[in-house]
Amino acid sequence: MMMIFKPLSLIIAVAFLLTIQACGGGGEAKLSLATHFTEASGPQSPSISREELLDIAVEKYTRAAVSEPEEGFFRSIDNQGVWQPDSMSWTSGFFTGSLWQLAHHSQNEELINLAQKWTSPLARAASWPSHDIGFLVDSSFGKALRMTQSLEYEPVLRRAAENLQRRYSPKVGAIRSWDSGNNYTVIIDNMMNLALLFKAAERFSNDAFYQAAYEHMLTTQRHFIREDGGTYHVVEFDSETGAVIKKRTHQGYSDNSVWSRGQAWAIYGFAMAARYTGSPSALETARDAADFFISHLPADGVPWWDFHTPAEQAYKDSSASVIAAVGLWLLAEQIGEGGNSYRNQSLSLVDNLLNDEYTSADPAQHNLLRRASGSVPHGLEIETGLVYADYYLIEAILLQTEAITEPL
Ligand code: GLY
Predict the structure, then answer these.
(1) How many structural domains is the chain composed of?
(2) pLDDT (tens digit, 9 = 90+) per residue, 198-220?
(3) How far does residue 193's CA lie from ligand 1's centre (Å)?
């Protein structure tokens, strides 16, 4: 009897453990990839060219920029397609950044003046209390400096880099993303903020900026990237020991799913970090993240907001497409000849958006890109026009059409 009972109880225990593991350990439902959802059609052929879209962008952004930044920074559109003034958040530098990119493209004096007008009020973002200092200041003051070469933009960039570097903990080996809670919280998006530090390290010959960014990249590589190249959104560390306490999501479907924009941040962030560090392993990570993204796209070639979304939340996130498109281009640039497939994938991601479903050519609407999703779990900004979606669309198109090898 005992002989039978023991193996039987062992089998039951193993089966129980396997079930728990398949369910994500936290009582989560089993996840499946969302690639199987049926869509009306595959990718649509572009109905507007990149050059035409840039001309439309110049018109739309010149018109929207006549309002005053003191009334609020733009983040999303209202139901008429008009940018809504909002208080400062991680997105506040992107409208300004788009103005600089379009000024660079058009060399239009009026756009340069408007871009300058929208840059100055962002000086206070240099002491923003989160990792978003990088997003805020690199997209505005960073682009302004690279476009004009005017040294008046340097002090804000230096101050922003100093404040971002102060958020680095040698115990954790990472830059803290958010200050809330007792744990030391880092999110995958933070890879993007390293651009500010890498660029400032070169410009101001500051090794501490470089080291903080480099160590952050290594820590992210160790703890955020899964075997299959998919990423976790949030990792909470113990601030004293640096031990991982929890891996979870904030904007994704579930702790073990892959949030599409987070995956796009990983492609772009690691490709950019590889460019500044020359690290072959950073390039490898960018490649793994890219392969996951590309191989799990749905039929029309535009990602759902989460690669594991259930059918009842089948919303698109066009912002993830364009961020990934820039990341793939940067990756291709560094791989050389073998990078052509990533260059072609980058072109396809943009091609798939150049139609009425995803792009607005209507001059009455301020946004270029439709169907971007800010945060589905929070019911916030679902399939709408978002400033950062436009910013990365313009960045991708400039890389793909002009004689430049990296973003402005
Ligand atoms: N960094 C916030 C986001 O991607 O929504």
Answers:
(1) 1
(2) 999 999 999 999 999 999 999 99
(3) 11
